[in-house]
Amino acid sequence: MKFGIVLFPGTNRDGDAWDAVTGPLGASAVRLWHKDHDLQGADVIILPGGFSYGDYLRAGAIARFSPIMQEVVAHARAGGPVIGICNGFQILCEAHLLPGALLRNASLQFRSMPVTLRVENANTRFTNQYKAGQLLRVPIAHGDGRFAIDADGLRALEDAGQVVFRYVDRNGQVTDAANPNGSLDNIAGIINAGGNVMGLMPHPENAIDPLLGSTDGLGIFTSILAHVAA
Amino acid sequence: MGATPRPGDPAITPALVADHGLTADEYDRLVAMLGRTPTLTEVGIISALWSEHCSYKHSRPVLRTLPTKAPHVLQGPGENAGVISIGDGLAIAFKIESHNHPSAVEPYQGAATGVGGILRDVFTMGARPIALLNSLRFGSLESPRVRWLVAGVVKGIGDYGNCVGIPTVAGEVVFDPSYEGNPLVNAMCVGLLKESDLIRAKAQGVGNPVIAVGARTGRDGIHGAAFASEDLSEASEAKRPQVQVGDPFTEKLLLEASLELITSGHIVAIQDMGAAGLTSSSAEMAERGDVGVTIDTTKVPVREPGMTPYEILLSESQERMLVVARRGHENEVRAILEKWDLVAEVIGEVIAEPVYRVTEGSKVVAEFPGSRLVTDCPVYHPEAREGEEVQRLRAMDVHAIAERPEESDPFWTLEQLLSSPTIASKTWIHRQYDSTVRGQTVVGPGHGDAAVVRIPGTTKAIALKTDCNGRYVYLEPRTGGRIAVAECARNVACTGARPMAITNCLNFGNPKRPEIFFQFREAVGGMGDACTALGTPVTGGNVSFYNESPGRAVFPTPTIGMVGLIDHVEQSVGGAFTTSGDAIVLLGEPTDELGASEYLSRIHGVTAGAPPRCDLERERLLVDVLLSAIGAGLVRSAHDCSDGGLAVALAESAMMNADAPRGFSVDLSAFTLPSRALLFGEAQGRVVVSTPDPQAVLQVAAQRGLPAFVLGTVGGIGEDVAFQVGSKRHTTSIARLATAFHDSIPNLMARVAVSSDDAAPAGSTR
Amino acid sequence: MPRYRVAVHIVPRQGILDPQGKAVRDALHTLGFGSVVDAHVGRHLVLDVDAASDAEATAAVRTMCDKLLANPVTEDYEIAGVQAA
Amino acid sequence: MPRYRVAVHIVPRQGILDPQGKAVRDALHTLGFGSVVDAHVGRHLVLDVDAASDAEATAAVRTMCDKLLANPVTEDYEIAGVQAA
Ligand SMILES: Nc1ncnc2c1ncn2[C@@H]1O[C@H](COP(=O)(O)OP(=O)(O)O)[C@@H](O)[C@H]1O
Ligand SMILES: [Mg+2]
């Protein structure tokens, strides 16, 4: 089982993703350079967090056109698993591998803090080690995390169970106060209709070590392994 | 040979010399050095190099008195950053720097480029940046202009560090009217390197090419260094176009490219083009290497056509580096830069002839003998005399100030103090900083007295903090200088780390005024005393003078940035009470001191009295006791008593974890001090710890002769707070205190951050 | 080949929350500009393009907008002007 | 009182680094739009203002730009249009 972690100019959480999959999971990983066309045999592609191309035009807009993204798109279209975290989520939306868009936080400020997530769909290859409704403590760190989509798109997502994570309060309730960025319906993470491409704004790769406060993010990575083993 | 004027250069007149901030004496010195009339380009070069910012002409003799050596110091002052060894072949590079004046004019870009500059100082040592800190001073948040400054500075710091992907892990923010017209923005960066990768900014090897790397040179910030050496005034407002715009994305690429260059072996030296740009970087590299250098300005990649040598040399465009490569390795250097989509151009050469020469094509436009343009810089020994106003304020009998009627309820007073922006929670600020990126932040902002950052691949961690109480320094500079270091050491030791070394940023007024130079000399002296006593040498720093706005100087603010080392990261502790039933123990003892306190300032509007005594021997003992107790696993939380005294320290420990504020109860009736000194006095050398085993903690303290007292017990989440003071018992809800602490700054910042006489946008409109 | 300067407006699509516009309006109100009824913030791009004619320059910029400059999910764009540069 | 819609362009001042503009230009080049010689990114503001006349609406918006909307240190602004709203 091999993870491929894509490095765009401006990516900065590649090391965090690397540590998450090679550390507690003991999986192998390779870094994939944005100018290359080679996925180096990676089974799962991670688009990690950061500010690809400075996010100067729109978050993720320019990275989408990198040479490596042609391969990532082909991999995804062939049913290969892809997970985009934070900037990676933004890139997946820009690349139309996921529906919707991520806009400037409603507060117009960057938000770095732990949030509580509720697992909305535990029946995916990225969440099968969680229980539906389970609450997770995971940090966020972003300025452009407000998920937006039109009404039809939203209904389609909801109907097909494609909303995977929502921001909730400590009691598991969807409230405005628990929404750190103004996302539509408190959406924090979604999956594509095919079930092989997931994007989320929070950072599970920074919640893998009790010393750093939470291990709740680990489940995403162990779910991927469990899915492959199954 | 010798330089000749370019066609169109203005004549060198006394007015032009004065415009460049050079005195008549300094100009005469320049003429004597050259043996002829300087060209305009040469006047520009000298005005930059002999500016206070680059030359330290008023501070050098005083700085020389600081302790700088220890076996673990690999690089002391004089390089881009200091470096200490942490064992296992690893080292930490760190440095703090001010960006006060640019931030006063354009808070967003000023603060952002401050972060950019300090990052470059660290990665040019061969270190990968792993943490950022910042130390901020503003006027009162009641002022719309101050809110505009705060919003812009915080956004600028956040946007830059967040984009580069370096966590901002700690800092401090103080609000006082003395900073109203002249905020302080100090940024610190900490990097990790292999000892074997340490590289110094020393030009070497005759024939080696000098290469400009990174962003292109534009017309921005020309004369920024001279600008940082003047008081803020109407005239400096008019210089606004000198503001530089930062590009953190390019910085991230430059960081990766520079580290790759350093490990590649293709280069011998690398230096940031910071203040005074190409001029100071090239001159300083040549001086350190004791070689000559030639630069051809027509080879420098520029952003705009028609730039003159003067502009190219003095531009402060950001995200640029100067590199000396090994001869014949130019293409390898270029290839590395290209990989990161950056440009590299050979612009000059290291030469044997002891000259610093600038050409425009084949024409020489500036030429100085040897390294004299750095070494011949004037040095001043200004007069130092303590101001009479300060003497009067210090001598004031603050104990005679009558209590206000409301003070009969100590929780009223505590509420006022907890909501004082200097003490109140800074979450509104640091939630805009990415503190988790890189995945090593064990204790982040707001969770402990110092940040704790793990060193991957080892069991170790470092603890980091900045500190300074400018009010103390103002009222008694020597004591204030000592306390700044001692408080930093306490904060670092509270996490379980041994204090290792400091960097410092000395923010003062105009050194030509005797009372300011007195503050400077004494504060630096106090800092040195404390560094010697605590075994934390000075590895570098920065001096920022002229922090004045018409009519007044800021509080003298020698900000200390400290690095401590923890051998076993899992032993580190935070500042919040964690467990109901734990005993609360005070290490150190209260005294009847009220002078210079936040209590006097917030409750009585008075800045007076002598600051608390600072017994350095006692501070050292306290550090030892903390480290033994934490090392023995006896301590579940530790938090030092600083602004607001014991009552504030207790309350902060109870609600530092905003999600789970805890009640507690303490009995202080054994202390016979006046209650306000007991609760709110700022006696030094004290730390509040919580422990399951108070007797063992008392024993560790007793073994070293440090007084310690069991005060009470930690309660449950949401339970009440009780103080027994003398014969009276006072209780209140933790929610009341938590509201005062957590809501104060958000409520103030919710008001609009611009006033009608401010002609600039809030960061929020961009 | 002649050079043209093409200006483009990229604005948040109607119905999508525009927190920047709201922040601008609120700030203006607090500063006493009560006459401002509404405010919207978009991007203003200026591109200098070599092209055979202004029509060709405009067409090229349209393609750039469709491909990269505007997000079809959340934004609308409009060519605001073309002139010889 | 009549209502006017005033459009404002706020652009980075000449000579000041424009990292956004550079990113757009570089990206367009990579996408094959080599004909783009330069690109700049600014803001496009649309304000609906109650005023007695279009001249008055424009004057009011100018004041707003001076006081709040444009950063006098790094940006220039220009009133791009006024029309009855
Ligand atoms: N500007 C800032 N940036 C990041 N963290 C900050 C900043 N200001 C304060 N903090 C954090 O808030 C907490 C309280 O800081 P401070 O009031 O200086 O501590 P102390 O209680 O020791 O005086 C610390 O964890 C500190 O690192
Ligand atoms: Mg403090």
Describe what you observe in this structure:
- The complex is a heterotetramer, with one copy of chain A (230 residues), one copy of chain B (766 residues) and two copies of chain C (85 residues).
- Chain A has 230 residues and is of the alpha/beta class.
- Chain A has a single domain (2-229), classed as Rossmann fold (3-Layer(aba) Sandwich), CATH 3.40.50.
- Helix content of chain A is 21%, strand content 25%.
- Chain A contains five helices and eleven strands; from the N terminus they run E-H-E-E-H-E-H-E-E-E-E-H-E-E-E-H.
- With 766 residues, chain B is α+β, with helices and mostly antiparallel strands.
- Chain B is built from 27 helices and 28 strands.
- In chain B, the strands form five sheets. Chain B has a seven-stranded mixed β-sheet. A seven-stranded mixed β-sheet of chain B has the order 23-25-22-26-24-27-28. In chain B, strands 1-2-3-6-4-5 form a six-stranded mixed β-sheet.
- Chain C has 85 residues and is an alpha+beta fold.
- The radius of gyration of chain C is 16 Å and the shape is elongated.
- Chains in contact: A-B, A-C, A-D, B-C, B-D, C-D.
- Strand 2 of chain C pairs antiparallel with strand 2 (36-50) of chain D, so a sheet runs across the interface.
- The structure holds adenosine-5'-diphosphate and magnesium ion.
- Magnesium ion is lined by residues 172, 467, 642 of chain B.
- Magnesium ion binds next to loops of chain B.
